[in-house]
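Box 3.1 A note on notation
Throughout this textbook, protein chains are presented in two layers. The first layer is the amino acid sequence; the second is a token string describing backbone geometry. Keep the layers aligned when reading.
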Amino acid sequence: MTMMLRKLSAIGAVSACFGLALPSIGQEVLPGYDLFDTQAGTTFQGAPFVGVPVGSYNFGGSIGTQSVGNTDTIVQRLAPATPGSPTIPIVMDALQLESATPISLGGGPLGFYFVTLQSTDGAGPASTGSMTINFSNPGSGTFTSFFDVFADIHFGAPNGPIVAQPVLTLQNPGASWGNVAPPGATLINGVDNMLNGANTANDFWPMGSFTESEPGATHVVAPDVVPEPSTFVGLLMGAGAFLARRRTVAAV
């Protein structure tokens, strides 16, 4: 034991002398979920799209069905990430978007179009990919990711007739993460919070918004948070104006 401690001390001294960084013991991001809210800048075939909250989601096991706030996109990390094994499999479990205004998508009729996942509509493959989580410190760093998204395009409603089934390869070239949730984040123990059952040391939170894109689509997301009261009032006013516009379009 004494010999081992001496060797470790010697390695540390040499590393400090030459400016080498040793990986910290215990660095790990545990499997869990990311609950995302779609942000401005999201487009499909050049048209702007907005998120439609899924409302609740069944996480299975002892967690079961939980309210997920304004979340419209759910991503699951399927394995732990460490400095020695940073690339992990991921799957998109939920996606629900709507065109911001009436459009004619692909030459189809003028109206509102919705994007969902083929897997959640009861047919089609899962939307899978991978994520590489890099550690700058034990509780923060950068990450990249990509998805093969098997989507359904619906006309008129999230469960309306399917008019197209594109496959989108969305890539995130790089963003920052930390293990501290943003203020007001939707927290569910065992889902995105206290993944080790004791504290947030092994949690994973993207720091702000980031973009996943391909030539025909751009998806900008951020962790779902509860808006501040003043912001919430603004959202309600905006929603009222949006619904009024929709009623006017419908009347025409």
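The helical segments are 2-18, 229-251. Residues 229-251 form the longest helix (23 residues).
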